[in-house]
Amino acid sequence: MNKSRTEATFLSPIVESRRWVEGVTFPSDRPLLNVSQAAPADPPPLGLRQALAEAALNQDDAHLYGAVLGREELRTALAVQMSEHYSATVSANQIGITSGCNQAFAATIAALCGEGDEVIIPVPWYFNHKMWLDLSDVTACPLQVGDDMLPSLETAKAMITPRTKAIVLVTPNNPTGVEYPEGLVQAFFDLARSKGLTLIVDETYRDFDSRSGAPHQLFQTEGWEQTLVHLYSFSKAYRLTGHRVGAIATSSARLYEMEKFLDTVTICPSQLGQIGATWGIHNLQDWLGGEREEILARKQAILDGFPTLEAKGWRLLGCGAYFAYVEHPFDLAAEEIAKQLVTEASILMLPGTMFMPTGDKTAERQFRIAFANVDAAGISELFGRLASFTPPNPS
Fold first, then answer.
1. What is the set of domains in the chain, with CATH numbers?
2. What is the tens place of the pLDDT at every residue in 214-249?
3. Which region holds residue 302: left if phi is over 0, alpha if psi is between -120 and 50, else beta?
4. Lateral strand order in the sheet of 228-233
């Protein structure tokens, strides 16, 4: 008997890891340090919340169906912002608004792929990307990264088959935090264009890139929209996680196909969320700059404090945006250690096995640390607990 589409994939690591802490009582002097999820825990700034409240009270259309591809004012505002950020020309008809960036990816795959097609995706991968490919009966072809956590162009080129439809890049990367160099991103674009493939670039964390200015020049390339599908999230920029607002930039012809998927799934993105995102673009750029500086300060705290763990045999494999990716020194598999860390050290973080193909042995040595909600003092506490941790002897 055939499996259902949901039976064909795994349980979300976020959902699974939450079960590890259910019913666990943490000591008052050692509260839980949750570094499992890369999402802001605080609500949007007050001004944005006031804008949402005023829209809810006074804008009738905030409660009605809207355009499938999003409100025109948000599409225009994002196009202007992207044009300025990337020193390029992006138009509103090349922008589609979605119910979160996960849906942006889902709509992209629905428009590009049929059952049995293939998508090349670097590993460690963002687990929801793999889950959606599974749910779509699209084969995720794992592209192993090197010691620098960067994917190999030549390896990707060798993986292309007649069934290949797209290559996916996430930069700054989830889960490793690594920022992909401009030349590497451009080389993957050139490869995709030469082979008639689509390059999907997910820049959910672009607002927290340590580099100033545009991280690549893809949007300056003539005809970029024929090869590139660019994904973005307002959740991280303006703390709109619960409102689910993401975006796609690509050709209007591709958006036409994606519109069919979006109309079937959600009909339109959240009106209030879109109103909040538009307000954020126009009013929160200085505030967002401060948020970026705080995240970069936490990245520096990771780099400055890691020698404490390095002395215990840990290795830092990647760091940036919201994430650090590390290798542990123990003989046990990472998932077993992760469960022990909950009870023995009051730490919840995700093992590398949640970002790798089943059976990958390197994943058993790896962890992702999400530090979006852990400040410098919390990072110091985290490293102190990890440095003191020794897995209990098996019973």
1. 6-43+287-388 (3.90.1150.10), 59-284 (3.40.640.10)
2. 999 999 999 999 999 999 999 999 999 999 999 999
3. alpha
4. 95-98, 246-249, 228-233, 198-202, 164-170, 118-123, 139-144
